[in-house]
Structures are given as C-alpha cells and as structure tokens.
Amino acid sequence: MSKETSLDNKLDRRRVAPKGRFRHPRLYLVGEAPGAEEAAQGKPFVGPAGRALREMLELAGIDPKQVRLANAIPFRPFSHATRRRLRNRSPTIEEVDRYGAAVLADIRRSKPIVIVALGSTAAGLLGEHRSIQVARKATLQFEGFALQVTFHPAYARRFGGPHGRIWRQTVDDLRGAWRESEAIRA
User: Fold this and answer.
1) Mean pLDDT, residues 159-165 taken together
2) What is the pTM of this model?
3) Burial 108-124, CB ≥16 within 10 A → b, else e
C-alpha cells in the first residue's frame, strides 16, 4: 500500500470547509482537525471543542459574527480503538503538509485582521514551532497578518476545564487578539 493510500484510509473524506465571516474577519481561528461531529455536520467547531470555544469567545467578549473558523486540515483523522471503534487522532505532519494549503489559501483570500492558532498543529501550519507557552507570549506574524498562538479548546477542556489555568490563559489570549484586531482596524 502506498503512503498516499495509507493516509487516505485514515481520513474521513467528508470535507469540513471554513465557516464564518469571509471578508476581513477580525479573528480567523485555526484549529487542528475536524472531529466526528464536525465531519457529520460539515462545519468546524460544532462538537465538544466547539462548545468550549464558544464559551471562551463569550467570556472574552468576542462577537462570533466577526470570526472565521477553520482547521489545519479539512478532514477528520481517525484511528481504530478497541473493537474497531473509530477515535479522533492528531493529523500527521504529512497530512498537514498535504491538506493545509487549503486553509492557507482561505486565509489569504479572506484577509483577516488577526489569525489565532489554536494548538500546536495550527501553529506549525502557520510557521510557529515553539511551545504554546512560549509562542503565546511572542509578537508573531504570518505573511503580514498578526498571529496569536494559544491552546486548543479541547486541551483546555481536558486539563482543568472552565476553572483551570489553561482555560483562563486561552480566554485571555483570545481577548488580547480581539483587542489587537480593534487596534489594527483603527
């Protein structure tokens, strides 16, 4: 079996395209990859991580109508767990290299004010390979667009939830990106 065929067999082929404000969104949020609910509905961030993200956006005072949502790859990567049940997995470097161009093209077309990379997969796609703790404190850009790196909502949910330090840091980072978009727009 070729490497290409091997990758394709481990991806749900239902494409999940970016959604939300297309022209000049104040924030362009890039996650890792769709999960089962996202693949089923064809929309990014509608599963548990999406619910966490919406709560975070509300806490940060962000208007969701000014946001565009996407993932580093448009397909759900999965693996087989016990009894052949499917479970989500992180995309491989090869998958991000192969399919990440779609979100990069969408970013270039939509011309966001600030891009927010949610997690290390999204950060890597946008050229940032330092740890999230280091990158979230840095002043970054991607092709001239302001870039903020923060934790993925699923990670914040898993490690502390709404009352945890990582959750609070993520909300603070989102709030900071929103304020930055306001300053750039002015």
Assistant:
1) 96
2) 0.91
3) eebebbbbbbbbbbbbb
